[in-house]
Design a protein that fits this description.
three-stranded antiparallel sheet; alpha+beta; 5 helices
Length: 87
C-alpha cells in the first residue's frame, strides 16, 4: 500500500462521501449511489479507484455487488499518519 495512492484516492469529495457511507456497514452499489447522488458509471469509477487503493472490498451476491470499507487498511493509514507526525 502506497500512501500516495491512498491519499490520491481519498482526495476526491465523492470518494470521501463513499467512505462515509461504508463506515456504517456493507452496502450494495444502488444504496451507495442514492447516498452520494452520482451516476452509476461515475460511482463505478470511484469504487474502482478505492478498491485499487485497498480502501474497499467487494463481493457479488447474485446480480448485486456489495462494497465494504477495508478497516485494516484504514487502520494502517491512521497508524502511518500518527507515526509521521509523532515527535
Amino acid at each position: 500500500m502506497s500512501l500516495n495512492n491512498t491519499f490520491a484516492a481519498l482526495a476526491d469529495p465523492n470518494r470521501q462521501k463513499i467512505i462515509k457511507c461504508l463506515k456504517r456497514s456493507e452496502l450494495p452499489v444502488s444504496e451507495i449511489a442514492k447516498s452520494v447522488n452520482i451516476t452509476l458509471a461515475t460511482l463505478s469509477h470511484h469504487l474502482d479507484i478505492l478498491r485499487r487503493a485497498g480502501l474497499v472490498s467487494s463481493r457479488r451476491d447474485g446480480r448485486q455487488i456489495f462494497y465494504e470499507l477495508n478497516m485494516s487498511v484504514a487502520e494502517e493509514i491512521m497508524e502511518g499518519l500518527a507515526k509521521m507526525f509523532k515527535k
